């Protein structure tokens, strides 16, 4: 777990979610603030969790001292793969991830084109049906195994 403190001015915003989003942007982090994990104490200090694929942050804002304590913990590669292969949306605060939906569409259509043209060329150039069948069967087994792994592991 990585811990750090950052000095900054905490704005006087009464809405917890809006304050969490503002602080996320000021701290240069990306992800979704989790409203169900937000707590504000009697002094006005806010504690919230920020989540993104592969990383979870616990953020403690001390408004009177002008400090943000950040505890970052990696969640592993499985949530990243799950998000990348199951989402067409971006991550709040991220410049790169806003283009993920476009990248996903282009990659999907290119893969389908490569698959269909590859099978067509394989059949056209005299490969026997047995070779084609076992090639497709092998790649299908590997694909299903990867899908099961991602489903059960992340």
Strands, helices and their partners?
Layout lengths: L1 E6 L8 H12 L4 E2 L5 E2 L5 E7 L2 E8 L4 E8 L2 H10 L13 H25 L4 H25 L1
Antiparallel strand pairs: 1-6, 2-4, 3-4, 4-5, 5-6
Give structural attributes.
six-stranded antiparallel β-sheet, elongated, 154 residues, single chain, 2 domains, alpha+beta, 4 helices, 47% helix, 6 strands
Describe this structure in words.
- The protein is of the alpha+beta class and about 150 residues long.
- It has two domains: about 1-75, no CATH class; about 75-154, no CATH class.
- Helices cover about 45% and strands about 20% of the residues.
- The radius of gyration is 23 Å and the shape is elongated.
- The model has no long low-confidence stretch (mean pLDDT about 80).
Give a quick summary of the entry.
This protein has 154 residues and is of the alpha+beta class. It has four helices and six strands. A hairpin with a 2-residue loop joins β4 and β5.
